[in-house]
């Protein structure tokens, strides 16, 4: 079929340029959205009597037939069609004849593709919300069963203070909840219809933009036709939110990679989520978290690509915008697959070594702050207590011993307010239990948070 604009030109495109210009290889992913968009547009043209009822019926039936053929694998969009929009129009004309040429009345590919992307992205965001919720549930279940399991907490990758393992895991539920909220906000801006803005200036054809918006489930319409066809903020917002979600997945991936090393031995990988070495038979490699960590850079790259694409592009639509699709397609695919993989890893791929975790918090100075707080409880000014404990740490380090190895007389040499009860307060379980401030790692606070999350996740 000749190009719709071919009468304007004397010669055909160079074959390489024709292929270079085409987007059918990737925008065919939008076929169902394009068909839904076209059906809604045809219904509107019938409602406003731009098309007769007979013409409307023919076009809608033809589009529905194309949808069935595609779903049955009988219609495969491909070159020489330039894009999915022309491909469907060509197919429709071949099915119903001249009436099919009336479908494009009152719209442009500019507002058409903008509508298709929004319809596709809206579904992807809804799917991501389900996937992230499932991941949260996996973290919740692991946290609920480890409220009283202790793990060293770190700052600057140095032992800091002992924590409830559940408290550590619940931190990720908070991160993922922010991800869900961000995607929800992005969805609200995705769910605005550009259809009817035409190329950039609207149309003199009698159309009803609010009808097509409602028909397609949009919350409203763009109020400015130029902005409608040129806006790609929502694509950038989606990839930006995805990049943050990937950073959270990468963060827990890095921790798992560390936890399962012989050096940490806080956890081990099950056979369901680990691979071996082709050379070293003893190896069990953390491929899942390593892949997630690696794929994070891929999504970061898509964000940079989109930001660069829109920089300095004059109003309104430009062919540059053809480059918006592959980044969001790949971002959605990458993020959803990483969330699924992490969910499986948390559910059945990792087992914590409770004994090693317990031993680790017994053999360091991560209770030093609590030793200072002990003196504060005896009315000693904090800064004085802080300096006293610093001296004790130095004393113990030089002798290769821990606080628990000191005698009470040695404690008193540093400050007279030390008494026998100090040994009880320095026990890791009691250290964690004492963190009673709201949002802290104290067991009572963690149990409270677990109950809150149980209600949030409807478990």
In short:
This protein is mainly alpha-helical and 459 residues long.
Give an overview in words.
The protein has 459 residues and is mainly alpha-helical. Helix content is 60%, strand content 5%. The chain has helices at residues 15-21, 24-27, 31-47, 53-71, 84-96, 109-144, 165-190, 209-215, 225-230, 233-259, 287-310, 325-349, 354-360, 368-377, 382-399, 408-414, 422-425, 428-433, 443-456; strands spanning 150-155, 158-164, 192-193, 220-221, 267-269, 350-352. The chain has a two-stranded antiparallel sheet with strand order 1-2. Helix 3 (31-47) packs antiparallel against helix 4, helix 6 runs antiparallel to helix 7 and helix 14 (368-377) crosses helix 15 (382-399). The mean pLDDT is 95.
Layout of helices and strands:
Blueprint: H1 15-21, H2 24-27, H3 31-47, H4 53-71, H5 84-96, H6 109-144, E1 150-155, E2 158-164, H7 165-190, E3 192-193, H8 209-215, E4 220-221, H9 225-230, H10 233-259, E5 267-269, H11 287-310, H12 325-349, E6 350-352, H13 354-360, H14 368-377, H15 382-399, H16 408-414, H17 422-425, H18 428-433, H19 443-456
Parallel strand pairs: 3-4
Antiparallel strand pairs: 1-2, 5-6
The coarse overall form would be elongated
Instruction: Determine Rg (CA atoms, Å).
Output: 31 Å
Strand content: 5-15%
The string of secondary-structure elements, in order, is HHHHHHEEHEHEHHEHHEHHHHHHH
Unreliable segments of 5+ consecutive residues? none
User: Class by helix and strand content?
Assistant: mainly alpha
Mean pLDDT: 95
Distance between the termini: 57 Å
| Count of distinct strands | 6
Main beta sheet: strand number and arrangement?
2 strands, antiparallel
Strand arrangement within the widest β-sheet reads 1-2
Helix content: 55-70%
Helix tally equals 19
